[in-house]
TrEMBL record:
Record key words, sorted: Cytoplasm, FAD, Flavoprotein, FMN, Nucleotide-binding, Oxidoreductase
Family: Belongs to the SoxB family.
Transmembrane spans: none
Pfam family, one: DAO
Name recorded for this polypeptide: Sarcosine oxidase subunit beta
NCBIfam families, A to Z: soxB (TIGR01373)
Repeat listed as a keyword: no
Catalyzed chemical reaction(s): sarcosine + O2 + H2O = formaldehyde + glycine + H2O2; sarcosine + (6S)-5,6,7,8-tetrahydrofolate + O2 = (6R)-5,10-methylene-5,6,7,8-tetrahydrofolate + glycine + H2O2
Subcellular location: Cytoplasm
Length: 416
């Protein structure tokens, strides 16, 4: 079934009896050519591109809960490609290009909304750093604009411009950035993958790997053993735990990140705005809620819930930036587990075990990467070679010293 305006009209006139589930609910087969572990955004996107773009068949996604129950449905929905380093910028720009055509590609409304992202500048030194990043973005062919304080005031007059500690002196704007409806992205990829023949198997936890002679032969699951030619692991915050079952210790720490939504307000925030003197980012959902977040909770955890001190810290950041937020009531808060790598950049690579591949280390930024990550992982699984834009995301870069430290904070995962 294709979705379209005509379809909605036809269903409205016929009592909505024609809608069907978005995907089948198959039982696992005894064997597949490709198994993707993890039914989050990256796993579903990888399965989708494996089937649709690389023409592969006999593919299954194994998800321990329900599709989209992880970070893909918990993030603050920001998409952007305003990266500085050559190891990152082409990859995130590739992702942005895929976002721009995604809904047509998989015929599903993911509410991709290119309302722009504005990174605020609070000091002269920060302006220099942002100008450098903006120039790097322009040189790589993407878009960036440096705004002065008056231009920022025109866009967002409610900000606290004359704060004595954090005056706003301008901003770096990427107009093509914005937001997308996170669970819609998971559903769109899931539906597309299912239509292309992928078995999406929920409530199927991978509990071990069968490895013989240095090669993976299949996975043990809560629904029995399933043989596989190749296995791709894309389990985000659970990466260390899952890869431990294959005998591997990863350069990753798992941390909690919380997100918040206020009651619905009239349209206020023009796009995404980030505070440059603290860690606070905010956008407004189509329902009117202010969607915002800040720092990690600061301790390692596998719990998908956060703590009160971080809520206070995030609220302080919000109040310093836009005091009017203090009048909005908080509606919901939740947490997700972040797979923080040692340099803040991801891993899309083979492992030392033949046939076992890893997609991990997304830190704060994996949602915006979903299309490119899925594509690059599918490329690696299908061809055995890395996608051009993901060549730097190697597992051994921590040993060889070829780290990609976008923030320049060194090997401190909780700061990335
Ligand atoms: C609060 C918050 C805000 C964020 N905001 C942004 C943002 O604004 N922009 C941005 O770019 N990024 C953001 N992120 C990061 C982004 O959401 C993640 O990096 C990204 O979603 C991770 O990839 P994923 O979608 O595949 O992960 P997930 O959706 O977590 O998928 C992994 C899946 O693996 C499954 N799994 C785990 N173990 C097993 C097992 N043993 N067997 C089978 N399945 C298993 C899990 O159940 C889960 O469904 C945010 C994250 C959080 C938590």
């Amino acid at each position: 079934m294709r979705f379209s305006g005509f379809r909605v009209l036809a269903e409205a006139l016929t009592g909505h009896t024609g809608w069907r589930p978005l995907w089948r609910n198959p039982d696992p087969q005894p064997a597949y050519d490709y198994i993707i572990v993890g039914g989050g955004g990256h796993g579903l996107a990888a399965a989708y591109y494996l089937a649709k773009t690389f023409g592969k068949a006999r593919i299954a996604v194994l998800e321990k809960g329900w599709l989209g129950s992880g970070n893909i449905g918990r993030n603050t929905t920001i998409i952007r490609s305003n990266y500085l380093l050559p190891g990152n910028q082409p990859f995130y720009e590739f992702s942005m290009k895929l976002w721009e055509n995604l809904e047509q590609e998989f015929n599903f409304n993911a509410m991709v909304s290119q309302r722009g992202i504005l990174n605020l500048i609070h000091s002269d030194g920060q302006r220099d750093a942002f100008r450098r990043r903006g120039n790097a973005i322009l040189l790589s062919g993407a878009d960036a604009e440096l705004l002065n304080a008056d231009q920022v005031r025109d866009m967002a007059p409610f900000l606290n411009f004359d704060n004595a500690r954090f005056p706003i002196k301008g901003g770096l704007l990427q107009r093509r950035a914005g937001t997308a409806r996170h669970d819609g992205v998971a559903w769109g990829y899931a539906r597309g993958a299912d239509l292309a023949g992928v078995d999406l198997i929920q409530n199927c936890e991978v509990t071990g790997f069968r490895i013989e002679g240095g090669a993976v032969r299949g996975v043990e699951t809560s629904r029995g053993y399933i043989a596989a030619g190749k296995v791709g692991v894309a389990v985000a915050g659970s990466s260390s735990r899952v890869m431990q079952m294959a005998g591997m210790r990863l350069p990753i720490e798992s941390h909690v990140l919380q997100a918040f939504v206020s009651e619905g307000l009239k349209p206020t925030i023009p796009g995404v705005i980030t505070f440059g003197a603290g860690h606070f980012y905010v956008s407004q959902s189509d329902k009117g809620g202010l969607v915002f977040g800040g720092d990690l909770d600061g301790y390692n955890s596998y719990a998908q819930r956060g703590n009160l001190p971080t809520i206070e810290d995030v609220a302080e950041g919000g109040m310093a930036l836009m005091p009017m937020i203090g009048r909005a009531r908080l509606l919901r808060a939740w947490g997700g587990i972040m797979d923080m790598s040692m340099d803040g950049s991801p891993i899309i690579d083979k492992t030392p075990i033949d046939g076992l591949f890893l997609n991990a280390g997304w830190c704060y930024g994996g949602f915006k990467a979903t299309p490119a990550s899925g594509y690059a992982f599918a490329h690696l699984l299908a061809t055995g070679t890395p996608h051009d834009t993901a060549r730097g995301y190697r597992l051994d870069r921590f040993a060889t010293g070829h780290v990609i430290d976008e923030k320049g904070v060194g090997a401190t995962p909780n700061l990335h």
